[in-house]
Amino acid sequence: MPDPVDPRRVSELPLDELVACHECDLLMRKPHLALGEKAQCPRCGYELYAHRYKVVERSLALVIAALLLYIPANFLPIMQLNLLGQASQDTVWSGVLGLFNTGMQGIAVVVFLCSMGIPLLKLLCQLAVLLSIRWNIGRSYGLLIYRIYHHLRDWGMLEVYFMGVLVAIVKLSDLAELSLGLGLVCFVSLLLVQVWLEVVMSPHQIWQALSGEDIHAGD
């Protein structure tokens, strides 16, 4: 664990040797980590950052997997509803169109952005950043794109949409014959891959690799 800094000596230390906990604001000396190690706040236990193995290669694999899942997750049927002899198939995209065509254009735009637009934009930003590090090109643009990605992180709400789907399944199961589609499997897989990607793609290592502070940060 990092060592807390004596408040009387803070002004004597270079800023690049200090790190603050995001949860409790404790100021500490920045520890140097070996591969596989992680730094935790000694006060609250929050993980400050980690040095993971092959972060770029593993993250690239997950980004590509997520992009491959994106189209089937959004355009294949999530469920099929049979009611009084009539069958209908619902997808994420058809849900957006349904809201738009029933006069709720504002809600349709929000649902589209949070469930389709921003998640795709986040994946493309991550792909561009990782390729910038992998091929060692355009790292200044990589820094800009990674900043944009961090501003978008809180706006992609796949998990909220998934909870809405689960609620709809539970409520409709008693009213009609309901069958789940391949789109739901792809959607859940996309959600899990994105969560895994957030864990694997260590922000500390990505920032270091993009800024050139540590040329081996992405290894």
Quickly describe the structure.
With 219 residues, this protein is α+β, with helices and mostly antiparallel strands. Helices cover 54% and strands 12% of the residues. A hairpin with a 6-residue loop joins β1 (18-20) and β2 (27-29).
Describe what this molecule looks like in 3D:
The chain is an alpha+beta fold and 219 residues long. It folds into two domains: 7-50, no CATH class; 66-211, no CATH class. The protein has seven helices and seven strands; from the N terminus they run ββββαββααααβαα. α1 runs antiparallel to α6, α2 packs antiparallel against α3 and α3 runs antiparallel to α4 (139-152). The longest helix is centred in the middle third of the chain and has 31 residues, at 105-135. The chain crosses the membrane at residues 60-84, 104-131, 152-172, 178-197. It is found in: Cell inner membrane.
Structural class: alpha+beta
Instruction: Give the number of DSSP strands.
Output: 7
Number of domains: 2
Helix content: 40-55%
- Major β-sheet annotation: 3 strands, antiparallel
The total count of helices amounts to 7
N-to-C span: 23 Å
Give me the side-by-side strand order of the main sheet: 6-5-7
Write down the overall mean pLDDT. Answer: 83
Low-confidence stretches: none
Q: Tell me what portion of residues adopts beta-strand conformation.
A: 5-15%
Global outline: elongated
Q: How are helices and strands ordered from N to C?
A: EEEEHEEHHHHEHH
Radius of gyration: 22 Å
Organism: Pseudomonas fragi
GO cellular component, one term: plasma membrane
Pfam family, one: PqiA
Subcellular location: Cell inner membrane
